[in-house]
Amino acid sequence: MAAVSFLLSLHIALLLLIPCSCQVGGSCSSARDCGTGLYCGNCAATGKTRPSCIRDLAIQPTSIVKGLPFNRYSWLVTHNSFSIVGEPSHTGVERVTFYNQEDTVTNQLRNGVRGLMLDMYDFNDDIWLCHSLQGQCYNFTAFKPAIDTLKEVEAFLSENPTEIITIFIEDYVHSPMGLSKLFTAADLMKYWYPISEMPTNGKDWPSVTDMVAKNHRLLVFTSDASKEASEGIAYQWSYLLENESGDPGITGSCPNRKESQPLNSRSASLFLQNYFPTIPVENEACKENSVGLPQMVQTCYAAAGNRIPNFIAVNYYMRSDGGGVFDVQDRINGLTLCGCNTIAACQAGAPAGACKDTGAPNRTSSSVNGNVYSGTIEFKSPASAASILNANICSNFVGLLLLVLVLIIKPF
């Protein structure tokens, strides 16, 4: 009986004191079972029946491959970043609209999101973020004053002096100089990337190093062409290409958005790939981000004349059956920046194709040209025998240790 009590106490102590660092795909019962940058979740939409460790943190490509032009990198963007499940009403009226994200903008940025899609409207004698229709914000579609979210952006940029953020405004603001006043009030003009320095005709952007040195760390694009002349805010489709959003962007041939030049045009050096359905379904997002997204990245890569997406915009960015959008971003940046299967395999200063062993298959190729991978993107599963073994060992570690102790103690 004493031995049983001892084992029970030991079991509890092990659960509390021994951290388990399961990797992506490893079985889990709570977040503490998973390693850094992972949480414990399930993706029933892909047929998963048991919770496993899922990524919720991006690797910033500039932390590994430094100093290249801004348009050589791929960044994660949240669609309708402000449209957050559980966001309380700020109008006193119950909200009736679709939702696209699950955590705060601050948390999105901390998890590696570097692009925000914000819908801005004139509302209540102010500028609000709304998920609305027909260019009109209503009490039941309004989320919050835009300045609240922009202050989150300012706080993040202030706390992280080497990071760069891009904001895409779906612009329904008609108040004179409304956006200029808004960004000034949010104290963001000190980070503003000026139109005068934005490259045209498909030329390279400055290096991320130069952008940081000049403190040009906030790129803002508007859907209203008139704002470029009146307020100095860049008209989005003068500087980037974009595929169709909604359902046309998640299946088919990856058509360009009607405001955008064709995706294979070389008139702009940035490419925004939308990947989210017209009607967001929270529980389906894990399948979309894990199964559909890699396929459409390849489709859009071909449609864009072998050009990678510089921005990948998704709903519910943390939902996947393992690596999700984070893994896709890693693989795009790896292939583009160093010719490796993932950005984690890139080595600073090494020639293209010289990849570190990350436990996953590495793609090396001589077809890397000017740091831009020019072949067909091949997304292989990042799982390896080593990572699967690690996951199995991790999920059973405490049980195995207890079994050994039982065998040791039993004779006594």
Describe this structure in words.
This protein is of the alpha/beta class. The chain has two domains: 22-56, no CATH class; 59-345, Alpha-Beta Barrel (TIM Barrel), CATH 3.20.20. Helices cover 29% and strands 15% of the residues. Strands 3, 4, 5, 6, 7, 8, 9, 10, 11 and 12 form a ten-stranded mixed beta sheet that branches. A two-stranded antiparallel sheet has the order 1-2. A two-stranded antiparallel ribbon has the order 13-14. A hairpin with a 2-residue loop joins β13 (368-369) and β14. α1 packs antiparallel against α10 (385-409). It is globular, with a radius of gyration of 23 Å. Residues 362-376, 380-393 and 395-409 have low confidence and may be disordered.
First-residue to last-residue Cα separation: 11 Å
CATH superfamily caption of the largest domain? Phosphatidylinositol (PI) phosphodiesterase
CATH topology of the largest domain: TIM Barrel
Q: What is the residue-mean pLDDT, rounded to a whole number?
A: 87
Q: Pairing-aware structural class of the strands and helices?
A: alpha/beta
The count of DSSP E runs of length 2 or more, i.e. the number of strands, is: 14
Give the helices and strands as they follow along the chain: HEEEHEEEHEHHEHEHEEHEHEEH
What's the level 1 CATH class of the largest domain?
A: Alpha Beta
CATH architecture descriptor text of the largest domain: Alpha-Beta Barrel
- Cα gyration radius (Å): 23 Å
Keywords: Membrane, Signal, Transmembrane, Transmembrane helix
GO molecular function: phosphoric diester hydrolase activity
Protein name: Phosphatidylinositol-specific phospholipase C X domain-containing protein
Transmembrane segments: 388-409
